[in-house]
Design goal:
- By secondary structure, this protein is mostly helical.
- The protein contains nine helices and five strands, in the order H-H-H-E-E-E-H-H-E-E-H-H-H-H.
- The chain has a three-stranded antiparallel beta sheet with strand order 1-2-3, with no helix packed on it. It has a two-stranded antiparallel sheet with strand order 4-5.
């Protein structure tokens, strides 16, 4: 017996709907403005929590605008351009905290506290912790980011996700709901007609 897929138009497992994104970011900003900025930056860049919690101003190039991410696996620096909104967030933070070495005030060692804050924000926004059999957390912003890239060529998706291979991107960040699968199959049927 196959479990019934939830009736949700705008999501895949582990990912937030667009309404949930708005409500959740709002709850994060209400909890703490800097926490809101951090979560929105993860959403806009596909950054992992460890990426933003170790991000320093030396890695940020506001004139481009870009961030030079430190790849924890390859130990290489990887520059990626960022959106206008991501640059606005970083500019506001830099103007507000010009003497701080790190972009955000927290250390990676405080990530468990921030995870609890995120869980509280999810609860305040009425966003379920589970989506199907997948737990949702701050890492889910990366899944949402990947989903926004679906119209781009696969190699560009890999590049923006900062993965070494396309296989990593497709195996870990690709999931299609039964509705999406059916719509794709229906397109094939129409081609034959």
């Amino acid at each position: 017996r196959v479990p019934k897929e939830p009736e949700r138009e705008d999501t895949v497992a582990g990912r937030f709907t667009s309404q949930e994104v708005v409500a959740l970011l709002d709850a994060c900003y209400k909890r703490d403005v800097e926490f809101g900025f951090m979560n929105e930056l993860m959403l806009l860049t596909g950054a992992r929590p460890v990426d933003v919690l170790t991000l320093t101003w030396k890695q940020v190039k506001l004139s481009v605008p870009a961030i030079v991410w430190s790849n924890k696996i390859t130990k290489r620096n990887e520059e990626r351009v960022i959106s206008k909104r991501a640059a606005e967030i970083l500019t506001m933070l830099h103007n507000h905290f010009p003497d701080r070495e790190q972009v955000f005030r927290w250390q990676y060692s405080t990530s468990s506290r921030l995870s609890r804050w995120f869980d509280t924000a999810m609860q305040a926004a009425s966003v379920p912790k589970m989506d199907g059999d997948r737990k949702r957390s701050m890492k889910s912003w990366r899944v949402v980011f990947r989903a926004t890239l679906h119209d781009l060529p696969a190699e560009m998706q890999r590049w923006l996700m900062r993965h070494k291979t396309l296989q990593v991107t497709s195996e870990n960040y690709t999931y299609f709901t039964p509705k999406e699968q059916l719509e794709s199959l229906e397109k094939l049927t129409k081609v034959r007609e």
